[in-house]
Write the structure tokens for this entry.
Amino acid sequence: MATGDTSVTEVRGKSDAAAATRSQIPHFAVLGMLGWTLIVAASLLWNFRNIDQQTLSLATEKARSTWNKDQAFRLWATRHGGLYVRPNRRTPPNPYLSHLADRDITTTDGQALTIMNPAYMMRQMTIEFEEIYGIKGKITGRVQLNPINKPDPWESEALAMFENGITEVTAQAHIDGSPYLRFMKPVFMEEGCLSCHGHLGIAVGAVRGGVSVSVPLSPYLASTAATKTSLSATHGVVWLMGLCLIGLFAFETHKRWTEREEAARALAWAKQEAESASAAKSEFLAHMSHELRTPLNSIIGFSEVLVDQMFGKIENPKYNEYARDIHAASSHLLGVIGDILDLSKIEAGQLDFTETTFDIATVLRDCRLLVQGMAKDKEIRVDLPRLNEPLSLYGSEPQVRQIVVNLFSNAVKYTNHGGAIEAEAFRLADKSTVIRIKDTGVGIAAEHLPIITEPFSKVRRNAFVQSAGTGLGLTISKKLMEQHGGEIHIASEVGVGTEISLVFPPERTLQAA
């Protein structure tokens, strides 16, 4: 039972491995959920960052377009040298242009007019633009005529950066408690600016100051918040779906491994039960074979005494015929019991398997002698060609002899009177060893070949041949060949004959060398 114990241990080992794997599934599921949570969170944060960057980009583009609009208007006003308008409460004469001789003029029809230089015009325009659209604007510089244009700290830093070659400055800031995007670019002294600002001593082409634009971020932030809320909801749904899928996968996997564990345990139990039953069967057969063989040997011995008439002549020929029948039936029954016991030992792994190096030609010749009597009765010729050179094989010689005797016996049994049997042994190119036995018997039908080696599948290969036996000869031969790592090949044709090849693997030849 060593082999059986090993197999049960292996099955139990698989069951324990399945249990260990199953116990780890919840841990893997938790790790998977944590990993999925990190992936979704990282995706959400990455999308939030992109949304914030897009929001700032949109606000910056808005500020840049507003600045460009302001500069277009300033350049237009500069090229026209300012604009005369009627003074009123909103637009009084600019006291910071009093140094201009023609700041105030009177038309021929008596209308009083005052000049608005580009800076004055832009300051009023940015105030009105802020009242309508909420976007603040301011023109400033380190040196200014109107104190209202004095730069704040952020604008002072930007002006210093412009003098160092920086062409654009942006920042987020709070103005009067509200979030803004501040944007500022420099303005340069031009020829048209000299009439009003030439006395400040700034050369043409130098940085005159800068124009800042402050875009309110509240509308952008509100839109961003709505987008983030929608995106959070979407990610939340995806996250929950992922958790459900991971949980479902873990549940199904746990279920499958549980079923596998239960199946392994059931298999281990079934194998143990089967092996126990096999052991009981082997023990029973061994006991029964002893109990049956003892009286059968006595019956065979006494029947031989009667057949040989050792204690006197039997007058009635019928008794002599009955004695022969008893002897034949008893011998056959003894052979059946021997076959069943051999098969039982092979299946239980109790067959003696002592390996040595032996000569195949000698085995074939000895086995031919054992069936020579049966062959002679049917006038069957048994030839052994191609055995001039010794062929060594490493294996169990008694088992190989049993295989060859089984094949010889079947060949004689199923070959009609006057037929022929041929046995040979040879090497193949790959060092495999082949023993081939060919007869001119009744043959085997093609539909019977797949089952011919199954236990108790005795196939009547000819309707006129009524042979006795268990049908275990080929089954035992096949299992003994498997013990040697070899194969048995059967080719047959009804009415032509049967060819059986025993193929031993190359290592059997190499070990015998």
